[in-house]
Design brief:
Blueprint lengths: L13 E13 L13 E13 L3 E5 L6 H8 L7 E6 L2 E3 L4 H10 E4 L3 H4 L6 H11 L7 H14 L6 H4 L8 H13 L5 E5 L7 H18 L2 E6 L2 H7 L2 E6 L2 E7 H6 L4 H8 L54 E2 L7 E2 L18 E2 L3
Parallel strand pairs: 3-8, 3-9, 6-7, 7-8
Antiparallel strand pairs: 1-2, 1-4, 4-5, 9-10, 10-12, 11-12, 11-13
Helix pairs in contact: 4-5, 4-7
Bound molecules: iron/sulfur cluster (SF4).
Length: 361
């Protein structure tokens, strides 16, 4: 078996699409609370997301914003509370068994901690062989399998492959372990990779190598990649498109250059102000003061009404605490939008804020 290579130029073909994706987790009740109503953590609400072939989409937000839950919902590791997921245009809802394996053949996940995601008592050969066998890509003969294993390790730049095949996870560095985890994901021959903070547990010196590897794979295999991160500076470097999440909701999206250079939503502006990127960073699109970074994310059991960012927002207006802002097109670049009343063309936007119009939520 060899890994399919699609050297054609990136297309806009949609691989994975989520519409209205919602996940509410029930809060476990204590014995004395059994007769009280069940409460829910509103981890993800009404998320829309599109992954296209040959493009990296970054999903950025602070811890607890729901971005990892989005990745797990897209991987169908959690059942969703609401919304729809389409794979290559087909609605999907899978729960275990053969249907899940068929889905996982197209959509693979890479986890944050490569050491935890590999079994410490098994070798690299075992992990990769298992993935190839599960997804029926091991070939017919031992020679086919050996070729496929070497091909996977070469693909993630662990060469010569013979040096790594019989090593245990503890004999590898963090970067090498993450490369093995990526090779295992490639063993399914996916069209979409969901990378949940793939470099955040690695040494700074090797993060760039792993990101460059993912970019190389995106280009050579024409993969659609979701890159989950809390580091908006790395999204700017690595991703074609960037979506920003706050307290379970999407608040801004567009191409990475625009979102990071001309952030429209006050939360994105705060994220960028706190990113250690000396190369940045001009003013945002709006005329919002940029110094109000204090405060904590809200409780998602009882999230604030209206805009969830309003308790922390330096530009808060009276309607923000009651009315949920829709996605409003900013107009400075194609596809740039923000869910913020500052850009309501019918409202009183501050001077210097470009006119906007509502787009589908
Ligand atoms: Fe701030 Fe209001 Fe915009 Fe929310 S809708 S980010 S509270 S200005």
């Amino acid at each position: 078996m060899t890994i399919r290579e699609t050297p054609a130029a990136p297309t806009t073909e949609v691989v994975l699409e989520a519409a209205g994706l919602t996940k509410h987790f029930p809060v476990r009740r204590k014995l004395r609370s059994l007769f009280k109503p069940v409460r829910f953590v509103h981890a993800v609400d009404d998320v829309n997301l599109t992954l296209r072939r040959g493009r990296v989409t970054a999903l950025v937000g602070e811890s607890g914003s729901g971005k990892s839950t989005v990745a797990r919902l897209l991987a169908q590791l959690y059942p969703r509370t609401g919304g729809e997921i389409k794979l290559h245009g087909q609605p999907t809802r899978v729960r275990g068994g053969r249907a899940f394996r068929a889905y996982a053949r197209r959509v693979q996940m890479i986890f944050q901690d490569p050491f935890a995601s590999l079994n410490p008592v098994h070798t690299v050969r075992y992990h990769l062989t298992r993935a190839l066998r599960i997804h029926q890509r091991a070939g017919r003969t031992p020679a086919d399998l050996e070729t496929a294993l070497c091909d996977l390790l070469t693909r993630v730049q662990l060469t010569p492959p013979e040096r790594y095949l019989d090593k245990f996870p503890h004999e590898l560095s963090g970067g090498q372990r993450q490369r093995v985890a990526i090779a295992r994901a490639l063993g399914a021959d996916p069209t979409a990779l969901l990378a949940d903070e793939p470099v955040s547990m690695l040494d700074v010196s090797i993060r760039l190598g792993v990101l460059n590897l993912l970019r190389n794979l995106k280009e050579r295999l024409n993969l659609a990649i979701l890159y989950i991160t809390h580091d908006i500076a790395s999204a700017r470097y690595f991703a074609d498109d960037t979506m920003v999440m706050y307290a379970g909701r999407m608040v801004e999206g567009g191409d990475s250059e625009t979102v990071t250079q001309r952030p429209a939503h006050p939360y994105t502006q705060l994220l960028i102000d706190s990113a250690p990127d000396p190369d940045q960073i001009q003013g945002g699109t709006g005329s919002v003061p940029r110094d109000a970074g204090g405060g904590e994310p809200p409780s998602l059991i009882d999230p604030p009404g209206g805009c969830r960012f309003h308790p922390r927002c330096p530009a808060v207006m009276p309607r923000c605490s009651t009315d949920l802002p829709p996605r409003l097109e900013i107009g400075d670049a194609p596809g740039h939008w923000a869910a913020c009343w500052l850009y309501d063309p019918a409202g009183a936007a501050p001077s210097g804020t470009p006119a906007a119009r509502e787009i589908g939520s």
